[in-house]
Every structure is written in structure tokens, then in C-alpha cells.
Design brief:
about 325 residues, alpha/beta, Rossmann fold, 2 domains, 12 helices
Length: about 325
């Protein structure tokens, strides 16, 4: 099977790329020069997908069993890809987002038929618009689409909304015994999926003609509270998490970006029903508990000092919010 990944070296896609190579897939990675792949066994195509004429030349003569765009974020990206790959691929997979699902949820168990509407996060609305465009291409032009909606997925990121992701600030605070912020009362439920588990489900869709015209989310079945998530991070570094609970809407007043990632995604409980992916990919199961996976992630950060990015502005912001909140409520 000959497959093109646009991107393919990110937090989620690196695991998928490596497992694809292990399965014997002939994998090409399209990246700009500054992101040349170090995925052993993958073939590189150098180019910038935002320059379609350049890409058309770089891809001249190629046809694909599947094309996956890991870095498409708006309708313009979709229109460009449609023009580039119609008649050139048997399957086009768009990486959407589970944050596109209805917020707030009318029913806490999410299936692929849960409505797509998110008034709180432009990122999610753009992903929804991409899905609408792709479904139109599928219905009207038979463009062979599959839509995949990852939820919070990690490998080389620390998956918490404040002080984490690509920086090490939350871990540094925990190690120093400083207080950390957990949104809400910490008891809302969420699912965090390791990229290695996600890859197993995803690769079962690759080249799967029954998946054409379908959408899927791929997540773990492990359900944790946000208290448990932060406590697992602390346990990984053999420390205690000194948690301060602050309501999400208050946090969003201090940082508009949190309106999307909290109110529009992580503030309310979400339980994913993975029946559909298991039906299309028999045997799929997520097997990496967060407590184990996050330990490996932190080891990855600590194996290279350049990865241990501690943002002063984030530390100062957290100290300020915690101080003001505790003072206001005499805590």
C-alpha cells in the first residue's frame, strides 16, 4: 500500500508513521525543509503544502492508495487538497477533532452521530466547516473521504490545559512543591489517549474501503477525573500535586484562549463510545493506562534538557491567579 502523509512527524502522527512502516506500508512524508523526517524507512518529499503549484510538481507522477492530511485546519486547506488529489487517491483521510462535538453536550456519551457544534472555540468550528466541505465533495463528486476525530492524545506533549502541552512548566511546579491549577472542581471526566494506541485504530482504517464516507473517533476507554490526571503526573515524578481548583469560566476571563480549550472542550464530562472503530477495526483496543504512558512522556522530556521548557510568563500567570483567587475567597 502506497500512502502519503502530509505532516507525519507530530505528536500523534509520529507514532502512526512508525507503526505504518512496521506494517510494510510504503510511506511518503510531505514536509517543508525544516521538518525533514527522521522516521526510519519513510520516503521524504520536500515541499510546502500551502504552495499548491510547487506541490503539484513535487507529486507529479504519483498516485496513492491513501492520503492523510495531519495539518489541514480550514476550508481553504480542504479545497486545495481536493484539487490536488481528486483522481489521485483511493482514500483521503482528514484529521478533524473530537472538540467539534456538541458543546455543551445534551447527552454525555459521545458517538459519531453526536451533533457537531461548538460555539466556544474557533478551532473546532473550522474543523466542522472542513467536514461539511468534505462531505459535500463525497456526495457530489464521490471524493473518497474518511474523517477521523482524535480527542486529547499525547506522546511528546503533557496533556493538561494549564502549564503543559509542549512545555514542562506544570512538571517543574509540581517538583518544586508549588501549587497548580485544576479547572472546575477536578471531578469532571475526560479520556486521554496515548498516540501508540491511537495509531493501532487509525492504521486499521488506512486503505479500508468500508471506511469511505465514514467518520470515527479513536480514544482510550479509560475514563479519569482531572484530579486523577494531574495526580498521575505528580506520581510520575514522585511528588504530590498541590491542587487549587478554580472554575473554568473564571479562568477564561483571565485568558481568552482558555475559553476554547476549557469551555469548548475540557470543562465538562465526556465519555466516548468506541463501538464504531472497534467494529471497523476488529481487535482494536487501547491498552496504555495514562499512569504508565505519562511516565514515559515525562522521561522523554527529561532525556533532553532542551525539551524542558519552563515558561516564566505561565509561572507568573499561575501565581497571580492562584493568589487573587485565594485572597478573594479567603482560602
Amino acid at each position: 500500500m502506497k500512502v502519503l502523509f502530509i505532516g507525519g512527524t507530530g505528536n500523534i502522527s509520529t507514532s502512526v508513521s512508525r507503526q505504518a512502516i512496521d506494517l510494510g506500508i510504503e510511506l511518503y512524508l510531505l514536509n517543508r525543509r525544516k521538518r525533514i523526517s527522521n522516521i526510519t524507512g519513510a520516503k521524504s518529499i520536500v515541499g510546502d503544502i500551502t504552495h499548491p503549484e510547487e506541490i503539484k510538481s513535487a507529486l507529479n507522477g504519483h498516485t496513492w492508495d491513501a492520503v492523510v492530511n495531519w495539518i489541514a485546519f480550514n476550508e481553504q486547506d480542504i479545497a486545495r487538497d481536493y484539487k490536488l488529489f481528486r483522481g489521485k487517491t483511493k482514500q483521503y483521510i482528514f484529521i478533524s477533532s473530537a472538540s467539534a462535538y456538541q458543546k455543551p453536550l445534551a447527552f454525555p456519551i459521545v458517538t459519531e452521530s453526536t451533533p457537531l457544534v461548538n460555539p466556544f472555540w474557533q478551532y473546532s468550528r473550522d474543523k466542522i466547516a472542513c467536514e461539511i466541505a468534505l462531505n459535500s465533495y463525497y456526495r457530489q463528486e464521490q471524493f473518497p473521504i474518511t474523517i477521523v476525530r482524535p480527542s486529547l492524545t499525547y506522546d511528546t506533549v503533557i496533556p493538561v490545559p494549564i502549564g503543559g502541552w509542549t512545555n514542562y512548566t506544570i512538571v517543574a511546579r509540581i517538583k518544586k512543591g508549588k501549587k497548580i491549577i485544576v479547572h472546575g472542581d477536578g471531578t469532571s471526566l475526560f479520556t486521554i489517549t496515548h498516540a501508540d494506541d491511537f495509531a493501532k485504530g487509525f492504521l486499521g482504517l488506512l486503505g479500508n474501503q468500508q471506511a469511505i464516507g465514514e467518520s470515527f473517533h479513536i480514544t482510550s476507554d479509560e475514563i479519569l477525573t482531572w484530579n486523577q490526571i494531574h495526580q498521575s503526573i505528580a506520581k510520575a515524578v514522585k511528588c504530590e500535586a498541590k491542587i487549587v481548583h478554580i472554575p473554568s469560566d473564571i479562568l477564561a476571563t483571565f485568558d481568552e484562549e482558555l475559553r476554547g480549550s476549557l469551555i469548548g472542550d475540557k470543562a465538562t464530562s465526556v465519555i466516548f463510545n468506541n463501538t464504531k472503530i472497534k467494529k471497523f477495526v476488529p481487535g482494536f483496543a487501547a491498552v496504555i493506562p495514562f499512569e504508565h504512558g505519562i511516565q514515559k512522556t515525562i522521561e522523554w522530556f527529561e532525556s533532553d534538557p532542551t525539551r524542558k521548557i519552563i515558561r516564566k510568563e505561565t509561572n507568573d500567570w499561575m501565581d497571580k491567579i492562584i493568589s487573587q483567587y485565594e485572597k478573594a475567597f479567603d482560602l
